[in-house]
Amino acid sequence: MDERIETINERAAAAAFNKQAALFDDLYSGDTIIQYKRRRVREHILKFLQPHSRILELNSGTGDDAIFLAKRGHKIHATDISALMQNLLAEKAKLYNVQKSISCELRSFTDLENLSDKGPYDMIFSNFAGLNCTNELDKVLLSLNSLLKPGGIVTMVILPKFSLWEFLLLFKGKFKTAFRRFSGEKGSKAHIEGEYFRCWYYNPSFIKKHLRNSFTMIGIEGLCSIVPPSYLHGFAEKYPSFFRSLVEHEEKLKTRWPWKVIGDYYIISFRKTGK
Questions:
Q1: How far is CA 260 from CA 88, 132, 156, 184, in A?
Q2: Which of 8, 205, 218, 259 is most buried, with most CB under 10 Å away?
């Protein structure tokens, strides 16, 4: 990797996710709220995917989404900065017999100009706030146009600058968590497996501003705006009836103001309008 990729923050993030790689699936695969989040994201992208699409996935992790899409006939070029995550993805692709549909590349989304396969793609997809690990999201967004076919789709799952559930933790005395999204340009410190790195928060207006010249927004919905975030471990299991009720309410309100922009995340999609 060149010096542009080897920034301090990216090295720290890569170290964190390398340490978490072996534990990742065991930690999260059985979590009810994470399963809910994955279902919501997949329902969103399937609305826009054409059969047999070529997909560029950014921050692909251990490959749950890549395998899900490959099983449905799509071809995925999966990128990540964690070598161990990439290794696990390749192993899982063989396990599920979809290795011919998934290619892997150790590549940062801040270095897409050096991507080995530049497409063009039918969709570029980034799940679960990987893009929040850079303070140069504007540059990343501007690099997407050349990688997409005309009419291609960009779908991202982003952490906004305000989360209702997170702010309500103020009343439990968790001041640091309640106010961390107000960190501004310096970003907020994240901690995984003994490694520290920074993340930044972006509202939909930021995304729209930097994609407006070549893209049209075609969908936005809040994720975990009424349903609690997954770091409230055991909530769904402890309060199953209440959790189901929250899911029902979020399904009804996910595309309405203000719920579409005050969740733990928002899912946002754009269609390329230019050449």
A1: 33, 18, 14, 21
A2: 259
Cα distances (angstroms) measured from residue 243 to each of 7, 20, 157: 41, 28, 22
Tokens representing residue 210 in the block: 């930097």
Cis peptide before 258 (omega within 30 of 0): yes
Residue 70 token pair:
């490959």
- Of 74, 70, 77, nearest to 93 (Cα)? 70
191-241 pLDDT tens trace: 676 677 899 999 999 999 999 999 999 999 999 999 999 988 889 999 999
**pLDDT, tens digit, 9 for 90 and up, residues 113-156:** 999 999 999 999 999 999 999 999 999 999 999 999 999 999 99
Q: 30 with 136: CB under 8 angstroms?
A: no
Q: Amino acid identity, residue 75?
A: K
**pTM higher than 0.90, yes or no?**
yes
Three-class secondary structure assignment of the chain: CCCCCCCHHHHHHHHHHHHHHHHHHHHHCCCHHHHHHHHHHHHHHHCCCCCCCEEEEECCCCCHHHHHHHHCCCEEEEEECCHHHHHHHHHHHHHCCCHHHEEEEECCHHHHHHCCCCCCEEEEEECCCHHHHCCCHHHHHHCCHHHEEEEEEEEEEECCCCCHHHHHHHHHCCHHHHHHHHCHHHCEEEEECCEEEEECCCCHHHHHHHHCCCEEEEEEEEECCCCCCCCCCCHHHHCHHHHHHHHHHHHHHCCCCCHHHCCCEEEEEEEECCC
